[in-house]
Amino acid sequence: MTNAISIFDTTLRDGTQGEGISLSADDKLKIAQKLDALGVHYIEGGNPGSNGKDIEFFQRVKSLNLRAKITAFGSTRRKNAQAERDASLLRIVESGVPAATLVGKTWDFHVHTALQTTLEENLAMIYDSIAFLKSRGIEAIFDAEHFFDGFKHNPDYALAALRKAQEAGADWLVLCDTNGGTLPGEIYDIVTRVCGELKTPIGIHTHNDCELAVANSLAAVQAGARQVQGTINGYGERCGNANLCSIIPTLQLKMNYSCISAEQLQQLTSTARYVSEIANVAMPVGQPYVGNAAFAHKGGIHVSAILKDSKTYEHIKPELVGNKQRILVSELAGQSNIISKAQELGLDITANNDKTKEIIDRIKDLEHQGYQFEGADASLELLLREAFAEVPVIFELESLKLLVEKSKDHMMSEAIVKITVGGESVYTVAEGNGPVNALDHALRKALVQFYPKINDIHLTDYKVRVIDEKDATAAKVRVLIQSTDFQNTWSTVGVSSNVIEASWEALVDSFRYALIGMEPVEVSTPVREQLGLVNH
Amino acid sequence: MTNAISIFDTTLRDGTQGEGISLSADDKLKIAQKLDALGVHYIEGGNPGSNGKDIEFFQRVKSLNLRAKITAFGSTRRKNAQAERDASLLRIVESGVPAATLVGKTWDFHVHTALQTTLEENLAMIYDSIAFLKSRGIEAIFDAEHFFDGFKHNPDYALAALRKAQEAGADWLVLCDTNGGTLPGEIYDIVTRVCGELKTPIGIHTHNDCELAVANSLAAVQAGARQVQGTINGYGERCGNANLCSIIPTLQLKMNYSCISAEQLQQLTSTARYVSEIANVAMPVGQPYVGNAAFAHKGGIHVSAILKDSKTYEHIKPELVGNKQRILVSELAGQSNIISKAQELGLDITANNDKTKEIIDRIKDLEHQGYQFEGADASLELLLREAFAEVPVIFELESLKLLVEKSKDHMMSEAIVKITVGGESVYTVAEGNGPVNALDHALRKALVQFYPKINDIHLTDYKVRVIDEKDATAAKVRVLIQSTDFQNTWSTVGVSSNVIEASWEALVDSFRYALIGMEPVEVSTPVREQLGLVNH
């Protein structure tokens, strides 16, 4: 038996059934290109029978000349009707795809309850629909809905449904755990039995309702399945579909199956992050293989071992999937985390050094106050570089005023910033959609003449955490800000019992970090006059 | 063999190794109470040898008289030293716990690379440390670090380490897949082998680096393990620990093992959400069993089948784990809750009533804006009572001004509130330890003459959550405030892109709720003069 596994991606179809996932035709085309570069074998684009967006996708995707097979999704024909006249099946043909997936019932309970027809008619629906696609020269993939639940209740009928699809010429029989309730051992036994009874290649399609979609897919492959259907990041209805980002590397790096090339596997992390960006769904930081924390180390003992040999606490080399190792700094960590971070920055720091002890004491003190640097790499870098006097002063704060006014029908936030930049005093005022937004605007306005790069910096995330909730409105808060200049992304932190001050601190750190190594530009006389600049 | 599985929760210890997870001693105590109510058998509180926060936890947790065994975590003694003099082991004894977990090496590679000692010395470290705990009357759980990696490389040594722990009197031998790289089939085979060779009860501790931590835990139980170590929501280093929220229901509802009672299982969803709130980590919407979308149905065909019989697309009844079905297209899920809440308040509300529809539309609209009433019972009650004109107006806002000033060495927050109470205009100003605190002070100052009860109200909790993080500093925030008058406790919510406005809303709701049914008192002339009150 071959060890080649065919990867069928349904991010663009089943993935969009997930709550909060909505993709335009443009989004789908972008993702399809990325999936093609990753090397998946099938890209299911959508359901041409259900909406116009998907029809547009199928039209436009042709000009991209992707290597992957683009497939359309549909159901078996309506009951008591003809496949040749079924509107959905005709739309699949019209969409011009080389392959299509048809979902059909294999659980007798569903035939009675959901379809409300006879067991015989359902078999005819399967046969006719597959035969129709094959007669039009389209590769036919049969998705056997609820196959495992069906097999457990009535194995003869579930197998009869598969045989009908096979007789009609189906190219793949894909066994679906539609409700996600089946366990790996059951999957293994049932797939083994099916592989023994049918000659058509078998596929697997699982859902994650028991957090077992990945394990179930792997069990099916071990039992003989040779196609895996899933989605990037496991998007899908309810708890999601099987996550291809976990299945592909495990099959390939740990089980000796072959899915995509080693070079393509190195694009896994960037693909996962790209899809999460387009879908506008934040990726869990600890997502296996591809998450930002998948190879991040926090515990001090772990870190000192990792520095001796990364195999001590890493199950694979992160580079194999395009990810990388990160050392987090936190109160749980010993000094080895901080030393390795400093060395990464090229700073002269070793374990037996007064400077090192001073820095570590400072970090511990800040963490005691509520700072957390593991989520604020840029603030940590500033702190380390400052200890070596490597960060020039970008500006000095003279004063900051924030005014929020609310009346019955009006709300206003205004920030007034007075700073000294390069020996000049700048005084700006700005409004915002809330106080922190106003501060952001006022500070940008003050700095942009001196540092035009400010225009490239965008804040992409803002988090507030109350540190000691017992103190209620007088409690300390920790603010985390994430920023990007489209090439890099960095995070900064601020802590205060005043949410405005904490936000200000994180904001200032973000700009300081972005401007490391930059000199203020000369401001022209007209601009000087407009700004009312005063030389000190 | 018994089918009872011992649940060992390490949310408070291994869970806090996760990126972005940081829990204060207060947080840990709150979570411990919730875990105890859920019925877990062991609660690992932390590492008394590593930091002061955990020592505080172990001291304070005693007075809670929890039913679960509180356990402390530590390592085997240092190399070439005595267990009786090992500072970490002594701290465990001092913490007064009835049980402790000691992690020790079982992978020869780690003994050489990380510990840098001999294989013999490592065995002695295990023996001495376990024997020491037992001599002090403490139940000893041996966490065999990297056991599966160790077994695959050198099974004899890995087993020898377990035998040493057994000889020293360990009560449990817990096999750890520390790096999370082992596959379910390997776990099953190795646990089967270990159960055949050792007589001490076996436990399993897995990590999710291949998205297999749940499957691996289940495989170990099937092979004979009788303790499962994991965390709520799968928090933990890198990709997290085994998720108890998926393991417990699967063991219990699908595999005929017994972990907690059926009533306790119904608290699973609320426990998961509570821990996520305290840890301030948003729960993935599609988290198996307990996520908000775990039983949410979006696809039209699915929904019509679900309405015929929920078994068609649900693997279990959501109520078994305390979750509920949601139909995303019609969003009618909350209606019965709202009706039952209103009836509880004695309001005339039934399902077929225009008023009911109006209220539900209003709540849906607010939820769409980002409000969440699950955690804000008082705001929901005000909203329901308002619909029946049952809440008298306590005051009307004329205007509100907030001023925050920061200079080089000074920080000031000042709030100015102008309101109308009982036909009189009141104008107050107050400072605070941050802007929200200043608002709180100014509003109290304005109301207290009319409602002396204000003096009894204290704010006990203040939470800020960014709703749509993508909008960075212009994002909407949800503020939750918890208040008490020492007899009752209530929670209120506010939403705005302006953190000040959201806080104000929640603050006002808190006072309005506390003052329901009260009339303003007559203010005496001297006080009137002092306040500068003006009749309208």
TrEMBL record, chains A, B:
Enzyme Commission number, as recorded: 2.3.3.21
Keywords linked to the UniProt accession: Amino-acid biosynthesis, Branched-chain amino acid biosynthesis, Isoleucine biosynthesis, Transferase
InterPro entries (UniProt xref): 2-isopropylmalate_synth_dimer, AIPM/Hcit_synth_CS, Aldolase_TIM, Citramal_synthase, LeuA/HCS_post-cat, LeuA_allosteric_dom_sf, PYR_CT
Known pathway: Amino-acid biosynthesis; L-isoleucine biosynthesis; 2-oxobutanoate from pyruvate: step 1/3
Reaction(s) the record says it catalyses: pyruvate + acetyl-CoA + H2O = (3R)-citramalate + CoA + H(+)
Record protein name field: Citramalate synthase
Enzyme class: transferase
Matches recorded under CDD domains: DRE_TIM_LeuA3
SUPFAM superfamilies: 2-isopropylmalate synthase LeuA, allosteric (dimerisation) domain, Aldolase
Matching PROSITE patterns: AIPM_HOMOCIT_SYNTH_1 (PS00815), PYR_CT (PS50991)
SMART domains from the UniProt entry: LeuA_dimer
Classification via PANTHER family: (R)-CITRAMALATE SYNTHASE (PTHR43538:SF1), ALPHA-IPM SYNTHASE/HOMOCITRATE SYNTHASE (PTHR43538)
Gene3D superfamilies assigned: 1.10.238.260, 3.30.160.270, Aldolase class I (3.20.20.70)
Coiled-coil annotated residue ranges, if any: none
Ranges where the Pyruvate carboxyltransferase domain occurs: 5-266
Family: Belongs to the alpha-IPM synthase/homocitrate synthase family.
